Amino acid sequence: LAPWIRKVKFLYERLNTDRVKWTEQDELDFQKLKEVLMTAPVLTIPDVSKEFQLFVDVSGQTAQGVLTQEWASKRKPIGFLSKILDPVSRGWPTCLQAIVAVALLVEEARKITFGASL
């Protein structure tokens, strides 16, 4: 998931300013992003009667995760989640950033799981 987040992060940074300054590198990154989107894995519809699994990672300033469920003895992605860590958390050691990442993404996952167990 980390490479995926890096591919999208430039868009967030460009769109989070008053004026958009689009560079040649941004255009190349955007073309790469479009290619990735065309080959992205198909998400499965969530089944709230089944248990969910949330896999979390923290990379740089971003918490990222994959929400999955088991279907036909295989884990299938239900959703890809990401949140940018707040400035205070960014200064913490990685082990503490991981705890913050889990807390943030569990909250995000609740929007999909409707309170079902993780």
Automatic annotation (TrEMBL):
Coiled coil spans: none
InterPro entries in the record: DNA/RNA_pol_sf, Rev_trsase/Diguanyl_cyclase, RT_RNaseH_2, Viral_Replic_Matur_Polypro
Domain Reverse transcriptase/retrotransposon-derived protein RNase H-like: 22-115
Organism the protein comes from: Zosterops lateralis melanops
PANTHER family per the UniProt record, alphabetical: POL PROTEIN (PTHR33064), RIBONUCLEASE H (PTHR33064:SF37)
Source organism, top-level taxon: Eukaryota
Protein name as it appears in the record: Reverse transcriptase/retrotransposon-derived protein RNase H-like domain-containing protein
